[in-house]
Known about the structure:
α3 packs parallel to α4 and α6 packs parallel to α7 (164-172). This protein has ten helices and eight strands. α5 (100-104) links the parallel β2 and β3. Strands 1, 2, 3, 4, 5, 6, 7 and 8 form an eight-stranded mixed β-sheet that branches. It is 37% helix and 15% strand. It is an alpha/beta fold.
Amino acid sequence: MDLGQDKAHSARMYDYYLGGTTNYVVDREAAQAVIGVFPAIETVARVNRAYMHRAVRYLARQGVRQFLDIGTGIPTSPNLHNVVQAVAPECRVVYVDNDPIVLVHADELLDGTPQGRTAYVQADATRPDEVLAAVAGKDILDFGQPVALSLHALLHFVPDDRQPYELVARLLEPLARGSYLSLTHCTGDYAPKAWQAIIDAYIQRGTPAQVRGQAEVERFFAQLDLVDPGLVLAHQWRPETGSGPAVLTERQVSLYAGVARKS
């Protein structure tokens, strides 16, 4: 299996930001280049992870029992299924990623409760029809019942020429009413020069990337009903005691987050 060790991958760079060890020299060098221009990138990664835990826990408490997580990344405990199955053991989760090293570690994504089910699909998020077909082939999620679609720290790697808005709309299309979209997206609104340097660092190493402003991110939720508090910086979305550093600046976070319902 070709693990892509000759080229930095965003999932393995993210693993490095989180302090993980499932990455290669090429990933660490690329990550260090980003840290050099924006040391808070490690904070962004941790805030994103904490938001994911809060968002999917909230959705499970709202009665959602099916979760489709696209752009899963390297397994990092607790994973999404650990969080939602702690609320409702019968939750079913399908993970999707295109990094072959995630497949190597997929066993960590399949250790769910006996009452629930978990599965992993290797697919490219920019090919939504292929993703949906592969997910349907697992016969775990029933698209006739509500599904929570999570696109966390993914869409800033889908530049405009890859039709990101159409991609999200296509993924939502077959999902039943009462389904949800949860996403996070990096922004240059608070540190534009630093984020342009970050984007350049990714592009120079072969990873397309594009940050977006608040209005551009909110557009992903078109035709959906945003849950309070709407689209906000990730640490401001329904914060919980002990869920992260007490004081964070907008510049440090630079990550929008939101949850919306399909009605």
